[in-house]
Design brief:
CATH superfamily of the largest domain in chain A: ATPase, nucleotide binding domain
Protein name (chains A, B): ROK family protein
Helix content of chain A: 40-55%
Shape of chain A: globular
CATH class of the largest domain in chain A: Alpha Beta
Number of strands of chain A: 15
Order of helices and strands of chain A: HHHEEEEEHEEEEHEHEEEHHHHEHEH
Distance between the termini of chain A: 47 Å
Strand order of the largest sheet of chain A: 5-4-3-6-10
Largest interface: A-B, 76 and 76 residues
Organism (chains A, B): Streptomyces sp. 900116325
CATH architecture of the largest domain in chain A: 2-Layer Sandwich
InterPro entries (chains A, B): ATPase_NBD, ROK, WH-like_DNA-bd_sf, WH_DNA-bd_sf
Oligomer: homodimer
Pfam family, one (chains A, B): ROK
Strand content of chain A: 15-25%
Structural class of chain A: alpha/beta
Family (chains A, B): Belongs to the ROK (NagC/XylR) family.
Largest sheet of chain A: 5 strands, mixed
Chain lengths: 414, 414
């Protein structure tokens, strides 16, 4: 029995109700996307009176969250309304993905659209964490300059980081060689030093696979899929769980580590300290090694593997198929545990799907106990291009704005 | 971005608010348990005025949900209040667990206390499903008679069933040999035939491990543990996931099937159609076979295994340790995926914990990537006696009553 005590109505004071309703109206307009939103349409959707919605819309127009344009004819009685849209300028979110061999920074607007993107490929394994984060801050500062030219003013930064992320720090990221790195603090200090005299932006952080999964959920066109497992093949194998449209973070923020589920208890040693983890069978290095492909520069190995698979190279196809079987085996356990709508594969798996998905689906079909998995069920799918961690991070910042626009009204002007 | 549109205040009409507040006050009194609840204390806790709470309490007293007795001195100013308690008579919940070798029926009152229990040991594998459910209905009918003598009147029945349960049916329960059995319908018809002229009780159903996990959550004294994996060793290995105090049912209602996570892809065939499932290593039959213990009658094998383990019988201890290692291996993957607060072991594992938990903890310690598992962390624990499926089922029925007592006011008199 849930014993959380919540009260309806009587205790919610007027200001709280109005702020909540501002958010409701702003999100209703945002959800219409490119369709025309009118005051009457919004009122019908959110269940408030037309008069109440008009007053809320005025406030959102005044503070720069909404714009209106032209006349629209709804086909209903009454005078024509004007079309409402969320503003393309004003408050924005900044997402910064720091990964093994690149930093990618993204600015999204209120609609969630990516408006500025700056990616630099560099090897982050060689440098001390503080230096990597200072570089990332430099890239972020340049991105902020571009955003300002478009009159977009981020109200916060979210960092997308590999490994175990909690309390503002990277607890452990074996593939970067990071241990107990206070990432938020280091990044914030570097960014502040680059922007003297400007207000400091609040910095948050989250595991990169979690943020990529959120981006997939929000922008990936998943339609009815509300619960899914997200796997991303990189140098490590990252994972995230979305359950009923919400990220499952776990009791300590460490959920989703599917790369370290055991495939073979006596298998090869893993950097995490265990043996026979999925990463040792389906991670990028294992896959390239099995296929006999040498990594000569960033991304070149995976491109070569795709090329050889397409050309029907036996060793390449066999290596990808074996990785698919191992993925399928571990995924069958995860599906038996969680019963999700779908499994989404991102990272290097996206391009390898033609050779990977058959063997993976075969394992799943044979091992999912509900009988609700078949080779043609379409539940194993490639991630969309939208599912990237930097955009997810930027959009996460915007969630706070959408949840309480009044708190950000002053900042909307930049 | 969550786009569920919810409105605060303005749309909630007075009746809805009052019904919600009745629930709030009833749950607040229930949560006080054996401590004294007063109108003033409840008002402070739920954040309503003393006058509002008094009016709600009167209604709950009138309709038999609350009783009051004696004077209590709160130590605060004002006249002494009277002590409020939830009624020990009136609306109740009926839970019926149908398992491989027993049927257990339980009645709980508003406080969640088990008040009547009737268990019959019988082998349900031999009989057709309709016959098993008719027997269960007979046991339920006798339990209802006992409940009526205590002036407890169940307002609904929840069935706790093994296997894959959804839409009122058992889709598949390999260990019972059931396939597509419309359990709710069969049970309801049998119960109605046994109680001619009495109003029919609504029947719901749920997987038994799910209900045992809920009972563990509600009555197991888990304190701060809000997210846990629940495993129950029986003839099958059942499982359930509780995340933030809520059961995770999955997209089709089939989550928690940890018994069918792969341990060894080429291992022995499992009844589910796959190979090398956990059940083949840590289920009751595998465990008894490995220990060289013969099953001579219901429960005798497990009792003998416990006896031999306690006596230091090498083969028994080794078999339990090996099962513990396999459990630990699969659990490490589940912990890496879900990052729960704890893992709770029930069923036959409860009694075997002294020989099981060490080897399981060792695997977990070596394989949980967060580093947040150690042999002495206390996160692997035995279930409490409270964690039984029949009580969970009965308490689930009561959730509906607690959520909207007004809807059950007429029935409270029986």
């Amino acid at each position: 029995m849930k014993s959380n005590l919540t009260t309806l109505g009587p205790k919610a004071d007027k200001d709280t109700v109005r702020r909540s309703n501002l958010s409701l109206v702003l999100r209703a307009v945002r959800d219409e996307g490119d369709r025309e939103a009118t005051r009457a349409g919004v009122a019908a959707r959110v269940g408030l009176t037309r008069a109440a919605v008009s007053s809320l819309v005025e406030q959102l127009l005044d503070s720069g969250f909404l714009t209106e344009s032209g006349k629209t004819f709804s086909g209903q009685a009454g005078r024509p309304g004007t079309a409402l849209k969320v503003a393309r300028t004003g408050p924005a979110g900044l997402g910064v993905e720091v990964n093994i061999d690149y930093v990618s920074v993204c600015v999204v607007d209120l609609a969630g659209t990516g408006r500025v993107r700056l990616t630099e490929h560099l090897d982050n394994r060689g440098a001390p964490p503080a230096e990597v984060l200072a570089r990332a801050a430099g890239i972020a500062a340049r991105t902020l300059d571009s955003a300002a030219e478009q009159e977009l003013f981020p109200v916060g930064v979210a960092l997308a980081l590999p490994g175990l992320v909690s309390g503002g720090a990277v607890r452990q990221a074996p593939n970067l060689g990071w241990n107990q790195v206070p990432a938020e603090e280091l990044f914030a200090a570097s960014l502040a030093a680059l922007r003297p005299g400007r207000p400091e932006l609040p910095v948050s952080s989250e595991n990169e696979a979690n943020l990529a999964a959120l981006a997939e959920l929000w922008f990936g066109g998943l339609d009815e899929v509300r619960s899914f497992l997200y796997l991303t093949g990189e140098i490590g194998v990252g994972g995230a769980l979305v359950i009923d449209g919400e990220l499952l973070r776990g009791a300590h923020g460490f959920a989703g580590e599917i790369g370290h589920v055991v495939v073979d208890a006596d298998g090869p040693e893993c950097r995490c300290g265990s043996r026979g983890c999925l990463e040792q069978y389906a991670g990028q290095s294992a896959l390239l090694r099995a296929a006999g492909v040498e990594e000569t520069g960033r991304g070149s190995g995976v491109a070569e593997l795709e090329r050889r698979s397409r050309a029907g190279d036996e060793r390449a196809v066999a290596a990808v198929a074996e990785a698919g079987r191992m993925l399928g085996r571990v995924l069958s356990g995860a599906v038996n545990l969680l019963d999700p709508d779908a499994v989404v594969l991102g990272g290097i798996y996206r391009g390898l799907m033609p050779w990977l998905s058959g063997p993976a689906d075969e394992e799943l079909t044979g091992r999912v106990v509900s009988g609700l998995w078949s080779r043609s069920c379409g539940r194993l799918r490639a991630s969309s291009v939208a599912g990237d961690a930097a955009r997810g991070a930027a959009a996460l910042v915007m969630q706070d704005v959408l949840a309480d626009p009044a708190a950000y009204a002053a900042k909307a002007a930049g």
